[in-house]
Amino acid sequence: MKSAILECVVDTTVLQKANAPITDAKKQGKLFRQRLAVLNAINGSKLIALFSERLMQEYREHVHEPRNLVVTEFLNLISSPRPGKALKNYKTPWSGQDRSNVKMCRFPSHDVHVLRTAVRPNRTLLITEDGPMLKSADCILRRFDVKITEP
């Protein structure tokens, strides 16, 4: 039995830090390679990218010009999404209980749009390097079924 492909949201911090010319990936470090691996998994249909208008706007603000092919492919993929590759998603309505859970989990209020993009009927991934988001991971998993993880 084939397992379902995981859906994930890539936080802007990951995309921004992956947006460097690829010279010698070994010299650029393990974390850089892991960022590229996440984007390559999405580009290669091993993960499905979740995105929203707000998140795309944030990508455009922080990644003015793609500096490598992996980031270019990712941005092209979400600009014209195809089934099984990328999915536009944003949880609405956002209830008082949802807001209360976010506060209880100490999830950063300025990044709630990223969480709302990740909330789906089934478990999803939110891939980030943001410390406050990572600290709220256990609570967010229990309350929203979103697994917050590093690349």
Short description:
This protein is of the alpha/beta class and 151 residues long.
Please characterize this protein's 3D structure.
A five-stranded parallel sheet has the order 3-2-1-4-5, with helices on both faces. It is an alpha/beta fold. The radius of gyration is 15 Å and the shape is globular. The protein is 50% helix and 13% strand. The mean pLDDT is 93.
**Helix share bin:** 40-55%
Shape: globular
**How large is the share of residues in beta strands?**
5-15%
Q: Strand order, main sheet: write it out.
A: 3-2-1-4-5
Global Rg = 15 Å
- Annotation field: number of helices: 9
Q: Alpha-carbon distance between the termini?
A: 27 Å
**Major sheet, described briefly?**
5 strands, parallel
Regions with little confidence, pLDDT below 50 for 5+ residues: none
How many beta strands in the DSSP annotation? 5
Given helix and strand content, the structural type is alpha/beta
Average of pLDDT:
93
Helix/strand order: EHHHEHHEHHEHHE
Please name the defining characteristics of this protein:
151 residues; 9 helices; 13% strand; 50% helix; globular; alpha/beta
